[in-house]
Specification:
The protein contains eleven helices and ten strands. With about 300 residues, the protein is of the alpha/beta class. The chain has one domain: TIM Barrel (Alpha-Beta Barrel). Helix 2 runs antiparallel to helix 6 and helix 5 packs across helix 6. The structure holds iron/sulfur cluster.
Amino acid sequence: MTEPVYLSLLHSGELAERVRQAYRHLEACDLCARYCRVNRRASVRGAVCRTGERAIVASYGPHHGEEDVLRGWRGSGTIFFAWCNLRCVFCQNHDISQAPAGSEVEPEELATIMLSLQARGCHNINLVSPSHVVAPILAAVLIAAQAGLRLPLVYNTGGYDSLEALALLDGVVDIYMPDMKYSDAMVAQRYSKVRDYPAVNRAAVKEMHRQVGDLVVDAEGIARRGLLVRHLVLPGGLAGTGEVVRFLAEEISPNTYLNLMAQYHPCHRVGLYPELNRPITRAEYQEAVRLALAAGLTRLDVRSW
Ligand code: SF4
C-alpha cells in the first residue's frame, strides 16, 4: 500500500511545525478566504465560521455514498465538521453547516476518531467542510500518525480556501476534493454569500493541483493521491458549467477527474430564490456533460439519466 504523504513530514518534524504555525494563524484568522482576521483562540466573535480553536464534529463513520474511487467496498471514513465558511442557500447539510450541531472535540479525540475509522476498514479519512478547522485537523493528524494512522487524507472542501491554509496542508493532504460551485461572482454572492468565489476558487484549485497532481487510482480502483473536482449542476445554468470545465481542461489538466453532480434538489432557503426552486432537468444535465466533453475533459464521473 502506498504510504500517505504526511508520513515524511511526520518523520522530519515538519508536521509538528505545521501544527504550531496553524495555531498561530488562528490568532488573526486567515485560514479561509473570508480573512476575518479575528483571534479564534480567544473568542468566536467575528468569525464567520463560528468556530473557535477546537473542531466541532457533527458525525463520523464509513460512508458508502461517495464516489466509487473513495468509497470502494469498505466505505470512505467520513468526518462531518459543524459550521462552514460558506452560506449556501441550497445546502443539503444546512442542519450541520449553518446551525449548532455536534460536539467540540480536542485534537486527541479527533485523532481517536481517525484511528477508529481506520480500524473499521475505511479506505481513507474524508474531512468534510474542513477549511475552518485546519489547525485542529493538523494537530489530530500529528497525533494519529504517531499512533499508526496510514490512510490517505481527503480534503473535501467547498473550494473557498485561502492560499495560507493550503500552504499549511502542502505535503499533508493526499487527495484534494474541492467543489467548483460557480463561474460568476454575482451568482456566488447571491447563493453562497461570498463576493469573490470564482477567483479564490480557481487559485485554490490551481494550488491543490500543483501539490498533488491528477488523481491517481490504485490497481483496486481506490484513489491514492491527486485532485478530484466536484461540480453541482444547478437549474438554469447558474453554476456556470461551461466556464468551469474550460478552466479545468485548459488551466489545470484535461485529465482532471471531474464528478458532474446531478443530485441538486431544492432545500433549505431556496423558497426565497424561485429560480433555484426546482430540480434540474435531464436536458440541463446532458448539456453539462456535453460541455465537459467539448472542453476536452477525459475523466468524467457522470450519472446515467
Ligand atoms: S476560518 Fe474563515 S470564516 Fe472562520 S474565522 Fe477564519 S477566515 Fe473567518
